[in-house]
Specification:
Blueprint lengths: L1 H12 L14 E4 L2 E8 L1 H4 L7 E2 L3 E10 L7 E9 L3 E10 L4 E8 L3 E11 L2 E11 L8 H21 L1 H11 L13
Parallel strand pairs: 3-9
Antiparallel strand pairs: 1-2, 2-4, 4-7, 5-6, 5-8, 8-9
Helix pairs in contact: 1-3, 3-4
Length: 190
C-alpha cells in the first residue's frame, strides 16, 4: 500500500520537471531543438510565487525567460507578449544576445484575459518561432486540482506510515474502525 501511495505521489512531484522521461513542465518552451523556461512573478501581490500558465491578477508582473543550456547564450533571441485573440502587442524586446542566459521584463497587465509569449530564435539567418499561451486575472481562487490531489496523497501517506510505525496510533485507528458487535453475539477480542 505504501508503495502504491508513494508511486502515485511521485508523478505529482515530477510534474515540474523533477524526473526523467517525458517532461511535463508546461513552463518550458521548445524553440527548435533548444528550450527556454518561462516564469511569471507578481512580487507586490504574491511575493516569490512562480506562475506560468495562469497569472492570478492584473497589475505589474515580472516575466522571466531563462535559457536551458549554453547554446542560446550565443544566439540572438527576440521576445514579444501579445494580448489574444486580437494580437495587441504588450511588450517587445528586439533581437538581442543574452550571454547571461536570462532576460526579464516588467509588464503592467491592465486587463484580464489570454496572452501569448512569443520567442524567436535567430541563428545564422534562420528564424525559429515558438509560443506559450498564458492567462492573466482569470485564474480561479483556491488551490488547483493537482495541488489538492498532491496534498491529499501526502496526508494519506503520512497517516499510513504513522499507522504502520506507531502502536498507539494503530490501536486507536483499529478501535475506531472496529464494527460494533451484533446483539446476541460477542465481539472478538484482539
Amino acid at each position: 500500500m505504501a508503495v502504491l501511495i508513494l508511486a502515485s505521489f511521485s508523478g505529482v512531484i515530477r510534474a515540474h520537471g523533477g524526473g526523467s522521461g517525458i517532461d511535463a513542465d508546461s513552463c518550458r518552451i521548445a524553440v527548435g531543438s533548444h528550450w527556454v523556461h518561462f516564469t511569471a512573478y507578481q512580487p507586490q501581490l504574491t511575493g516569490t510565487t512562480e506562475y506560468c500558465k495562469a497569472i492570478p491578477d492584473v497589475g505589474q508582473s515580472t516575466l522571466v525567460f531563462d535559457y536551458e543550456g549554453k547554446a542560446l547564450r550565443r544566439m540572438t533571441v527576440e521576445f514579444e507578449i501579445t494580448r489574444e485573440p486580437d494580437g495587441t502587442r504588450m511588450y517587445y524586446q528586439p533581437p538581442t544576445i543574452h550571454s547571461s542566459g536570462s532576460t526579464n521584463a516588467t509588464i503592467n497587465f491592465t486587463e484580464p484575459g489570454n496572452y501569448l509569449a512569443h520567442v524567436t530564435l535567430i541563428n545564422e539567418g534562420e528564424e525559429v518561432d515558438a509560443h506559450v499561451p498564458f492567462s492573466v486575472g482569470t485564474a480561479q481562487a483556491g488551490p488547483s486540482l493537482l495541488a489538492t490531489l498532491a496534498i491529499t496523497m501526502l496526508v494519506l501517506a503520512v497517516i499510513y506510515i504513522l499507522y504502520l510505525t506507531n502502536v498507539s496510533f494503530k490501536g486507536t485507528v483499529d478501535r475506531l474502525c472496529r464494527k460494533p458487535a451484533r446483539s446476541g453475539t460477542s465481539a472478538l477480542k484482539p
